[in-house]
């Protein structure tokens, strides 16, 4: 029975990831980046996200997931495609994006559906390095653990002593009960990286080595620089 439950859980997880992966292939990477820009612009203008804007000035990186979808009836799952970028704090310069998928599956009392726009602000080099692996569990691997701060804010830490390695901010639309991102998997989307940059390239090559660039990400990079510097929108 336990094996069947585990199999079903990972089936849900893979289904969520495949769904988000198929939505971010070919030219759709540009659409995903446009959605990330919209999410950040909305949060930039909302007083509720003042802490997020302040944190970006010293953040080591960011992950933006414009559409994180949760759905279920007792057995639930979640999935979303996003972009990850690193920040040179001294120069206030952001790298081009690497593409990622976040997926999760869980059991328990959960009824409803929800779509969230999520921004993960990465505050330490250790957290950024952990997230640059091809697959990392936010609840177990690399020492990452999730905790909830209020209704829609969650944090992840790389050790018990560091309570603010990663902060997550989100807008949510819909109704969902009993679901947590504990145990969510963050996976590098190598297919989207290749489709966007025109060659096989890993997240570390994009974010750490800065081996490639794409003019289509300039608006996203400039917006992050603007928010991190506290500049007023033009």
Element layout with pairings:
Elements: H1 2-22, H2 28-44, H3 50-55, E1 61-88, E2 93-94, E3 98-122, H4 125-131, E4 135-137, E5 145-149, E6 153-157, E7 166-175, E8 185-188, H5 190-197, H6 203-207, H7 218-229
Antiparallel strand pairs: 1-2, 1-3, 3-7, 3-8, 4-8, 5-6, 6-7
Helix pairs in contact: 2-7
Pattern of helices and strands? HHHEEEHEEEEEHHH
For the record, give the distance between the C-alpha atoms at the N and C termini, rounded to a whole number: 59 Å
List unreliable stretches of 5+ residues: 1-14, 16-24, 147-152
Q: How does the overall form come out from the CA principal axes?
A: globular
Largest sheet: 8 strands, antiparallel
What's the total number of strands?
8
Radius of gyration: 17 Å
User: Count of helices?
Assistant: 7
Average pLDDT metric: 76
3D architecture notes:
This protein is of the alpha+beta class. The protein has one domain. Helices cover 32% and strands 35% of the residues. Strands 1, 2, 3, 4, 5, 6, 7 and 8 form an eight-stranded antiparallel sheet that branches. The chain is globular. The N terminus is likely disordered.
Keywords:
single chain; 234 residues; alpha+beta; 7 helices; globular; disordered N terminus
């Amino acid at each position: 029975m336990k094996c069947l439950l585990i199999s079903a859980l990972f089936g849900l997880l893979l289904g969520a990831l495949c769904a988000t992966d198929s939505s971010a292939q070919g030219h759709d990477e540009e659409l995903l980046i446009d959605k990330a820009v919209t999410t950040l612009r909305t949060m930039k203008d909302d007083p509720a996200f003042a802490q997020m804007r302040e944190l970006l000035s010293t953040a080591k990186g960011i992950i933006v997931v414009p559409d994180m979808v949760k759905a279920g009836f007792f057995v639930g799952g979640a999935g979303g495609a996003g972009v990850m970028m690193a920040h040179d704090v001294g120069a206030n310069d952001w790298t081009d994006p690497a593409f990622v998928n976040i997926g999760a599956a869980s059991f328990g009392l959960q009824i409803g559906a929800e779509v969230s726009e999520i921004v993960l602000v990465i505050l330490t080099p250790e957290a950024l390095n952990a997230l640059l692996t091809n697959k990392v569990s936010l609840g177990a691997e690399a020492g990452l653990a999730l905790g909830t701060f209020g209704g829609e804010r969650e944090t992840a830490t790389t050790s018990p002593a560091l309570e603010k390695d990663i902060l997550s901010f989100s807008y949510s639309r819909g109704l969902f009960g009993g679901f947590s991102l504990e145990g969510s998997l963050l996976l590098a989307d190598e297919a989207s990286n290749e489709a966007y940059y025109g060659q096989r390239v890993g997240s570390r090559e994009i974010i750490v080595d800065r081996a490639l660039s794409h003019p289509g990400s300039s608006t996203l990079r400039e917006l992050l620089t603007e928010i991190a510097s506290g500049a007023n929108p033009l």
